[in-house]
## 1
Amino acid sequence: MKRRKFLILGSVFGLSSSLMGKNNNIVFSKSLKSVEKTIQSVQQHLFPEGSKIPSARSLNATQFLLETITHLSYDKDIRLFVIEGAEELESREKGKFTVLSEKEKERALRSYEETHYGSNWLSRIMTLTMEGMFSDPIYGSNVKEAGWKALGSYGGLPRPTTRYIKL
Amino acid sequence: MTSRKYDVVIVGSGASGGAVAYTLCKAGYKVAVLEKGRLIKRDEFSKDELAYARRDIVTPNLFEEYHTIEEKVEGKWVATPTYESGWSFWNGNIVGGSSNLMSGMLHRMHPDDFRLKSKYGEIKGANIVDWPISYEEMEPYYALAEELVGITGKYEKHPYEPPRSTPDFPQPPTKENVVVKLIDKSCRALDIVPLVTPRAVLSQDKGHRNACYYSNFCGSYGCSSGAKGSSREALLKPALATGNLTLMSNTYVKYLHAGKKDEVEYAMVVDTVTGKEKKISAKMFVVAAQAHESARLLLNSSNKHHPHGLANSSGELGKNLIFSAGGSGQGELHKESLKAIKFEELMTTGLFVNRSILDWYFIDHWWDGKFKGGSVEFMFEHQNIISRANKNNEEDGKLVWGKVLGERLVERFRESKSIRFEIFNDWLPNDDCFVALDKTHKDKYGMPVGKLRVEAHPQDVKVGKYIAKKCEKVLEEMGAKHIYSSISSAPPQNLVAGGCRFGEDPKTSVLNKYCQSHDVSNLFVADASFMPTGGSVPYTWTIYANAFRVGDHIVEQLNKG
């Protein structure tokens, strides 16, 4: 499966020329800003308060996600996919996803998951959230090792002193 | 600018490049090692999962440097660039190469691996040949690698354990998790002989290298004590100490220039930081860039004297690329059903599972028949936390999220531990597994990328499945739950060899028995490219051993002047 085809499949917008245009930094930042609340809301639904693992909110998971996908090491196609998938979710929910009740959010996300595209997107958001939650605290999300403590599993020594082996 | 101060230029600083550099520098010759990647020193390594295991930080960005991979789709060969698929064929592009990142489970090849065709006959569709050298010629170098690289273990007699010239390993095995008691007990109950896995990790201090500190994150990571027998720690550091080695990191080799028909004159290189090009000349050149990249470099070095690629009068360059066949399997040991050992001890982190099985290396069974089998390694599931968490977020094809996910992860991490096996069997060389130059795709330096066709022979999967069934029985006996195995014909990109076969006949091989080009006398290929067949063990020990052998031969030639 080719990556671009994989990302585009089933999308209303497609990985379109307009989106490709977003791959310049200014347009990209603007697009990202416009979907930030949607992504935050999805992350919080996947990792809520009251669970045996810390919530997305308590670990600043959205901040981690935004910093991660804008980092040089992150795949440019996938960062576009992250934005477009959020736009598509809002499009399906008529721009009201963030204000839906928990029950309605569950319905909306399970329904989105029924599509191949939505399933891939949700899986990507979950991975990006877990990456923050269980990576070294230096990346800003695994606050006071709360993610590691919940699982009783800790990163090895020595710990990184900079992000992404910046030497 | 052309510099002429080196006796030998080596392209690549991994296991083989390091072994040749060590040998030459110790013999007093001036060597330049050219490494595309950067230098990460021992004290700069960390156990940063995000950086080392989840991003292209120690390998090139696939949009800048990549391969195209040819697979058969509905009867036709379709090439997909790896920047499309995300399927990287790079392995540790840093000083010391992928030996920095190995988990270090090593075995010698068996004497019969050197004469597979004579011993087991031809297999239709497979290009099996005997090696031009015997195990006896390689053995002293296996022993040398054991000493210099620091391979630890415990010799136990076994019908398929190759003979050795020294009584035992230079150091005892690394410390072991209590799970080995359960493995040993279960194997014996099934009439299987478990063996201690030789491992390129020091259990005791050795010179400038400190013993293993059991970090729990070994494979995929650089070592922070120097215990792992990487080329960088074990060979390049001592080579640098001789004063004879010039280590040039961030140096990409575009091609080797052979202005005369039988002699390479210089390597054309690019500084990957400044983009500046220069020529580096020497008396001899050693290519050690990892099998698929070494063949690519020689193909990219074609000129009027060598229209089909350097050292390719046979037409064999790039052909008979091999990987390691087999696959892996896994089962979960649960707290409430654990037998024979204590759960708290099982959960102790960092200690190794040094266990292998060689019982099925050669099969000669009244019902199953006579054929070449393979080896098995046991290990815990990799301890990477993000990847383990991410593996447990699905049920019946649906994502699990919310509080259910939290409960599931906590239970999975705190109440069980997964034990794995990996099977290594021969990847039979065949006409549909090779590397060539892609006609349209070029890397960021303007050089054609390698196009890899990666088809496996059907026998490979058959053998893998045969062994997997036996391994699943071991896990069952251990009381593991949710046992599964996955045997496929997909190539493991970190276990690659072949493409520059060695042999006696210049018409059918690229290199002679010393891994010297039949065509170009001052050109050697020292990495796993030379292997016509790969044996049924990880390649690394053989790569180290053979490169020491090649190094000795180059020293002899240089001594003769």
Note: Chain A touches chain B through 49 residues (CB under 8 Å).
## 2
Amino acid sequence: MTRLDPQPRERIDRSAELTFSYRGKPVTAFDGDTIGSALYASGVRVFSRSFKYHRRRGLLCCSGACPNCMMTVDGVPNVRVCAEPASAGAVVHPQNVLGSIDRDLLSIVDRIGRPFTPVGFYYRTMIRPRRLWPTYERFLRNVAGLGRIDRHGVRTTRYDTEHRRVDVLVVGGGASGLRAAREAAAGGERVLLADENPCAAPADGFDVVAPARALGIYEGGLVPVAAGTLLLRVRARRIVIATGAVEQPLVFPGNDLVGVMLPDGARRLVEDFALAPGDRAVVLAADDRALAVADVLRRAGVDVVASIDLRTDEPAKIEAAGRRGRLHGVTIDGAHHDCDLLVAAGTPQPAYSLLAQAGARVEYDTSRGVFCPTDLPPGIEAAGRVTGALGEVAPTRASHGGGFVCICEDVATKDLERALAEGFDSIELAKRYTTVTMGPCQGRLCHLSSIRLYARLQGAAEAAIGTTTARPPWAPVELGLLAGRSHEPAKRTALHARHEQAGAEIVWTGAWKRAHSYGDAAAEVRAVHEAAGVIDVSTLGKLLVTGPDAAAFLERLYPNRFADLKPGRVRYGVLSTDAGRIMDDGTVARLGEEQYYVTTTSTGSDSVHGWFEWWNASWGMDVEIVNLTGAVAAVNVAGPNARDLLAQATSADVSREALPYLAAREATVADVPCLILRIGFVGELGYELHFASPHAEHLWDTLVGLGATPFGLEAQRILRLEKQHIIVGQDTDSESNVLDAQMPWIVKFDKDDFVGKWALEHARARGPRELLVGFEMLDGVVPPEGSQVVREGRPGGRVTSARWSERLERGIGLAWVPPEHAREDAELEIRVDGRLEHARVRLQPFYDPDGSQLRT
Amino acid sequence: MSFLLPCPHCGPRDVNEFDYAGEVTTRPTGTPDVRELAGYVYFRRNVAGVQREWWHHRFGCDAWFLAERDTRTNEVLCTEVPAARARS
């Protein structure tokens, strides 16, 4: 295939060649070619096989609207190659074929299967016997459908989202779109123009994004524009829709043969790519612009054997005939013409979809036979042919003797007739039953003809049939573009590098990355019990609550009492909701009369901060809340040697008298100003140091250098379980209250009010439904967390935490059990791997029940 | 949802920058009975119309504020930072 002589407006650069592969063989293209035009130039005529019947299909619109040229490009299915710029090295394959595109074995469906596969056949014929449905489904999925995705593929494309604010967004870069953009730019407005055409006109005082497709108009005037791998979220004061009109295929037998083209498709092949769309042509059209294609073809050397103006000479019957899917002649009201190109279109339909999405009404114009937008909402404008300014046009027949209404989904006039006969008399129902307008073209080429056909079949006016609802996306869009960038943010503490250097196993805990263990959790537990360990607890939420009302504020928020907490002291607190449920827990240290330092759980820091701010906004108290979580690092030094170890790093007095259990002191440790909280989640003498996070590595290195063994989350979990200390969210859920979690001493019912007071009063009056208790296993097993507690053969509780305690030489844990079982030594049965294992309730901590180690 | 919400501090912003925190409820005073408490804790008016509600400018200035919004159209009539009450 040779190119025509250079055309005045051709897009190809004949001096620059590139090569891509099609079906494994190299194809040469010029710079400026699309994959489709280069394939056409290399002699390809059959571009795809149809959705249902596997009929041969060739270039039709050459504008990326129809489904006929969809191929798989570099693994991406359903790419319209007619609009996809050719790029060097691209790998292109046809899709939806068994065998080859030329000899597709599945075309048997077209040859012998059609009588058995009317519209909706699979709803009726393939439902019995029910158990065979999976087989049917597998068969149908192989036969029908379009491209395939690689189910084992990995993300190779990076998609991104960008927000744009402009004064004016113009959608469509045709003559009227360009005019609107230039006028707005001349008036000093910031303008963005989006156009589907890869070679949009150069910018003229405004921004152009191309090739780009506006996907819809959403609430608030948001317009997502798909521009390659970038999704622009555009907001504009004014939106000008200049999407033009879409040429409508005529409906006649053989209207899907290879060689039947829309006028603009034929024009593009000639003018943009210097390709002759055929040798002998017949032109059938209903407007001047389309009829002018006859002259374009003649200039390109095509023999135009007939050109028929449907406005004046509309035939009743058109029938195209072909061999092996390729057009070789057309009979128009009995007159036969041999031809290999049939340029055929009815009245162009304004592309109003975006306007309708924005809230415009759509009315049928009987004099022209098209739907036109009207009543545009404020801020939305239309320009050019989309308004219905189509020149002199007249309605054409709904069909010229049958044929395909919808080429995307192979829906023929017969199918719509059948749907109507079966009672699907509304166009919305017909759409869902026959899938007309639901294919890849999204109704661009079949919406109008399906409505007109339905009107004719029902003897009704088109206005009475109405349109189906216009919804986004108006143009096909890759799911990856909607998903955006792969975004899994991880929070790392200031000590993360140290954990990695120490070979820690790192795990996700919420958004945080934390050290699970440094290789041997049991040894870490031993180090804490016998000497001293250090754990990174920087993930704890840290809030500074200050102001004249700080004490009163915490009194109202917590069931605990904090007004009587003396400066320099720490108290454990549990937050409750007004429904009485446990929300979070942590420690509260009073630093001064009007200053409290509140810690939260690692996962709860944001929600607790929000909770504090919200209540403060409601109450309007004189309190400031500052979230220090990221700015402050924290480590916990714990173990019988912790005091001696700390004393070597500080000149401050850390003796038992100067810094007793539950004291809070500001002191310098290893030259770093710290807040020291003497608390003990892990059950040994412990000091929690809070300090500015840039000093974290220095302090960590100092403590480890003095002999503290780093321990991770797993060791901490074992240690705290030996003390029966709960973890909110692990041992409690959205139903748990602090009374049932066996911490009644938290709740000061004599306070006037606090969040959760009334619900907790009701809970107290009602009595517990279940209680959280410790248990130990009697025979060496550790039940998985979540295991069922069984009593008398029935479910009666659940295990929330369980670990093997080396120190106790048995499995221990926490479980919710019915109140009657919540007594010391009560026997429980726990279902593990289908067997019932025996356990015994332990209400006191397994380790150091009187807390002497903590207080030492 | 893609409407713009005017933050009292930052001006109109995409609604995705905010957390919605529900309609404004009235916390009972005194000691509510079970029915009153359940109403406050669990029941919402869920109006089709103008609703007074809480918003949090989570990906912005972090402010908690009140908005009056028509739940049928998402038209935001006004937003405000709640006035500080008499200091307790």
Note: The CA atoms of residues 53 and 67 of chain B lie 5 Å apart.
## 3
Amino acid sequence: MRKVAYYKGCLASLSAKELDISTRALSPKVGLELLELERVTCCGAGDIHEAEPDYYLHLNARILAYAEDTECDTLMTVCNVCTLNLRQANHQLKGDAALLERVNDNLAKVGVPAYTGNVEVMHFLWLVAAGEGYELLQAAAHKGLKGLKIAPFYGCQILRPSKLLGFEDPDRPSSLERIIEACGGEAIDYPAKVKCCGFPIIQAREETALGELIQPIEQAKEAGADAIVTPCPLCHLSLDAWQTKLKKQTGKDFQMPILHLSQLIGVAAGLSDSELKFKRHVVSVDPMLEKLSV
Amino acid sequence: MDAKHDVLVIGAGCAGMRAAIEAHDAGADVAIVSKLHPTRSHSGAAEGGINAALGNSAEDSPESHAFDTVKGSDYLGDQDAIEIFTREAPADIYQLEHWGAVFSRADDGKLAQRPFGAAGSPRTVFAADITGHVLIQVLYEQLVKRDIKVYEEFFAWQLVEHEGRCQGVIAWDLLHGGLKALGGKTVLLATGGVGRLYRATTNAYACTGDGMSMALRAGLPLKDIEFMQFHPTTMYPSGILITEGCRGEGGILRNSEGERFMERYAPTAKDLASRDVVSRSEQTEIDEGRGVNGSVVLDLTHLGAEKILTRLPGSRELAMVYAGVDPIHEPIPVRPGAHYHMGGVETDSDGLTEMTGLYAAGEVACVSVHGANRLGGNSLMETITFGRRSGRAAAEWALANTTVTVPESATRDAERELKDLLGRTKGERPWQIRDQLGQTMLQNFGVFRREEQMAEQIEIIDELRERYPTVVVEDKGEVFNSDLTQAIELGYLLDVAACMLQAGIARKESRGAHSRPHDYPTRDDENFLKHSISRWQDGGPELTYKEVRMTRWTPEERKY
Amino acid sequence: MQVALKIWRYDAATGDKALREYEVDAPEEATLLDCLDLVKDRQDGSLAYRKSCRMMICGSCGMRMDGGAVLACKVRMYDIANAGHVPVISAMGNLPVIKDLVVDMDPFWTKFKAMKPYLQPGYSQPEDGKEHLISQERMNVIHKESLCINCGCCVSECNAMESDPEFLGPQALAKGMRFVGDPRDAAKTERLDEYSSEHGIWECTRCYFCNERCPKGVDPRDAIAKLGAEAMKEGIDDDMGAKHADWFVHSAKTTGWLRETELVPKTQGIVSSIKEMKFAMGLMKHGKVPIPFPPHVAEGVKESRALYEIVKEQDRQGALGIVQGERALSRIEHALEADPDHAAASRIAPEEAGGSAGGAEA
């Protein structure tokens, strides 16, 4: 079992609890032992990075410091935004000794251990898309997706900026496709799979956001997808919870189920209903599950 | 006439924009005609810096700057113009800074100044290694602030002379198509250089000697047209520039034996000797078998990553993309490439040409500030100082005169020529002539010039000029017909080349960038301390000479 | 080497659009631009595209290769040709196409000019008429923004602008930050006010396409974040986007975790939230609207509260908080070469994955 520090972030704690629950249930099956970080806070998302960037750096340094404190070399995230935020902070601290010193001084003042740069931040997606994690996933997905058509939606901040994330080609990524195929599903290709769901501006500029949101949903629907899978709970929130708003705007009722990555793999690995918590979704996942049970 | 203005500036590089800004501030209605959007102009590719005797880095004075410039010019520069230049330069730099130019700073917060070729004191103000880019940006910002009209992507084709004055230009609207007659009480050429004559050049595709040729065809003289500067550090095969600033920051040129060969050729200044000296040294090393695949190498590896990443990041990226080397770890192969034209349209110190109402500033002009060889950093300064002076002069003249007329005949003649050019369906495509011109100029009229090769080149140019009237423009459309404009540009190149060769073969000495080590290896002040003057007469170049204006300095032996 | 290209030809006058394939014999060092020149010179003189410097500084040759904007002069064709890949070349996005690869840059320059992109120095000039004395460190605040060559690659891929063509966009806003961060500019507050308008800072969707596509390392998204930081520091925070961001800060320093439920009324205001009741009910049914009481407080939240007070005192407020990280981030590639262990997570190469080569269309 590979021990990793686990940072679940804000959404997985509350409105997207199903992400945390399914991740915990799935992790042992793919060789991951999760040590959840207790003393952490919100990573700040793009918002604190924009509003109070120095505070953003310190909040993330604190998360990294507590991760390092567990003696794990990997901090696992389950959200695109957390991943970018933590990796960006990590790069800044590791690449500038003077900055690291200043931040550690401040952390010390509030009783947080110093961060020495020995943690690598990895999204759960990356841990299971290649290497040993992938092999274990292949073995675990014995129930399979029976040829279900799944449209991968990456979202922005797991791919770009690629020099901070760097796991795969940002223009032609393939990690989700590999996982879908390993789970026995058919991966759907469509242009908007690497574009933005609009979540960051879904409140402040709703119309613009919906103009973005409709693209992956419409394209996936047209390509015959049974469901969309995404590694980001923020994308999940807009794709799932805001899907009804699209109906209002366009008159189209897409009824496209949106799955968290851990849920998709979880279905193939035979997780129970109480571990998947699909009833927490706004758009019903039933049509997809029915197809599977046939 | 489709429009009229007080001042029409042709070209939107540093000189053109600075002139337009000044003309505007002098109260004139000014418009710029440019075949590129202003920020695309080649001034933006300048890298190393801009010279002025600010004295921020060490003791300096305009006199010292002037002497370095005079010596650098191999005593062909007009000293009265040079004195004006170095005296007014500092105020021009401060003006740019007040407008917001993003220059690099010294530890005390002043403008940083780096050492540059043949400079007695470090006086090159810079912005990392993208100085030209920074200047283009600040000038464009000031242009936008004044809401100065730009006829963008308008290709200036023919000067209009009427009643003894230049009164406008016939231009081709590249974006939408169609000939336009633009009237200007004064016209100011700021069209840059002619590096595209050479296969290996630092210059952009746009640098085709447009203004030089237009002036030539309008009967005006080109001065010192045989003097093309070969920049010592350009990359193979295109000639893309690696700034002199690399040597200013401590970079060293080496031959195949790893030797710092400049110690032999210029014991004092070494790698920061004058550009013509360095280019000749490199070429000699290469010719004598101490090159590496036809290049020497520029070694920055001892500067350390930090210095390179802070002071020379642009150069690093260029080397990585175009030469496939990271200068932090490996030396960059470099060789001489055509870079800057010292000669050009003859003007006085206010940018006025022989023709009333016609001005010129920047690389297209020859005041002459640079004589037979230009110092690095002086060209950018020239664009600003003389751009300003000529902009004001053009504005003042225009404001004191009321009429402007572009006769119908000018438009009709241009239309007929255009119809001819576009109507051709049989002939050759321009690229063949262009490529042949580029290769042969590099071979026969490069760093080292020989009598036989120059004679051969004259014949080659004659033959190319004979073939030119048969070129076929495939694109017969109106919208964005760059096939047409490129064909016209080729014509400009051929005219300037003819003048260059005539003046070059006639100059029986070696001075500055004109080097004839095999037959005339030394400078001949007795017979050739004079400017060559080339005019277009009866379909070909005609050569005369003119005195050099000297004030303080008498020619001495030029050693570095 | 043989290089094959597919180019989208377009004639605005007739509306004819066609994907044509060309093959050229190019030297090994050829760039995409060199190949276009070969096509134009020797096969089809009507191919229209902009070019000038061919050394990544003039910004003329922005165009899309396989759906993503690049500078044609920056793309070396060797690896592409060797892999047998035939790239699809098309005009940049988000701008009207005039002909083939030539776009109408008017909307681009109009937005640029809307930023009042020139120094507004106010009344104070250096007394001796010489330069303002400014440290290099202070000028570095706008170093990245000053690198912009106005090529349009960022604008081409901007997701927010695709949805709302009136969004000012990454290039204009980055230029705005160039002035907001310039110590010689006296119009900071007016600028921030202007840039915080409907189609300004807060309409950026944070897709990071601009950072990804910029060929000069400007990182426009970060410039926009700097503008947001400066706006909020100046108290220009009326916009919903600002209020949204503010609530994240407030959450971090009170409960540690994001106070999700209150986010809507705090961002949109009570009136708007009431209008959203029906929508909110739909979410509530599925537990998507967590009850804010008792608040979900993070363990050790005292630390994040205290940290807030500490950083508030220090001199990295506003944009400086982002600028401080730039040095390290600009050295990432360099560090990768020097120390492979410092590398990003292991990369999946496309060939290894065997995944689809889809993505954005031409």
Note: Chain A touches chain C through 97 residues (CB under 8 Å).
## 4
Amino acid sequence: MSQIQYKAITFTLNGKEVAASIDVRESLADMLRNEFGMTSVKKGCEVGECGACTVLINGVPYDSCIFLAIWIDGKEVTTLEGLMDEEGNISDIQQAFIDEAAVQCGFCTPGFIMSAEHLLREGKRYSRDEIRKELSGNMCRCTGYQNIVNAVEKTMEKRLEEKEA
Amino acid sequence: MYDINHIYEATSVEHAVQLRVEQPQAKIISGGSDILISIRAGEMAGCDLISIFRLDELRGVTLDEDGTLRIGALTSFTHLANDPLIKELIPVLGEAADAVGGPQVRNIGTIGGNTCNGVTSADTASTLLAHDALMELTGKDGVRLVPLTEFYLGAKKVDLRPDEIATAILIRRENYQGYFGHYIKYAMRNAMDIATSACSVNVKLSEDKKTILDARIGYGVAGPVPMRTPSAEQAVKDKPVSADTVEAFAAGALEDVNPRTSWRATKEFRLQIQGELARRGLTEAIQRAGGKVS
């Protein structure tokens, strides 16, 4: 290691433009947690298998643990924190996870919710099998997937109804 | 924090080639879903990287004037699975791309990376091989086209010269038009798994759907690199669509495959699967082509 290499980047984080000078060796997960306090971004496996670190980049889910922080320059990131409304209330999908008992230890939950948020924003009606496929990059080791799929399905139906109304 | 010494970010294909010449020790990183995992495992500790992530001109699927399908090397698996041209002209490739990992991995993983890392389990490789795909490699002296069959040199070794980067994968019109394919991945889980073995078959039938004019088969995890099995292809060329022909196809495949025992599965188990994959793959491909195995 000769000298630490830094890069100045700007990107949009949960709707706000931010700038940072980052060590090029950092993963996006590291940067979001350490520089910006986005601790909903969980570091589970750190090899892109468990999905606990899932964030939306330009609206699409990525494992932030295997995404270099330098690549985020000029892009838009949404973390779980970004789902909160102006008054600090949680969103419908988060409430559905609580209502459907889709949370046990909670470590996988932010990642699951970001994957779910992506499919909910598509505005389509997914079958349960399709929901499972969309969530197949996220692992829960406590409680299983039944209630998670229930929570997503319920929120999907609710949002579709609101859209039609 | 990844154990990386220095990252060179390419801003154009020419810049990437220049960086390749200036920094021969550096490895190319496109999406990172293999490279970053290797770095984290300590296998590439202290490495230099050339990032081609920003080369958006290498993303996407287009059709050249002569009907050649051009897949940019940085095209993600998600893109491939949803691309209208792929769906129309070579849907089996989209299905193979959709079998990779999970949604997040399919969003970051690229078809060029999947090919250039030279691993036998690459989900898209068997389908590309079975369509006689060409690698487009750009270096300091220009562009070189290499058939994918020749691009693979050995396990994790490909014919990418020190000054080159892969810029596209090409499939010529005569290699997809009239062909119908099917990809089968055999793994322990439906998602987030690496193939125990995989097989991609495509066929072209006669007009009355009773004769196989041509059949091609590519395997993953049947040898050190993705491979075709010529004995299977020869065994069914110009043969009637029948159960006997399907059997001959599977028997031919087993003459050529050379799987090994690994912690995922034994050689014997893989051979069992590979015969069955050939059978099912051909039967389904024939059905998609409008024929029926009686």
Note: The interface with chain B takes residues 1-2, 5, 23-27, 30, 46-49, 51, 54, 60-63, 66-68, 70-71, 115, 133-134, 136-139 of chain A (CB under 8 Å).
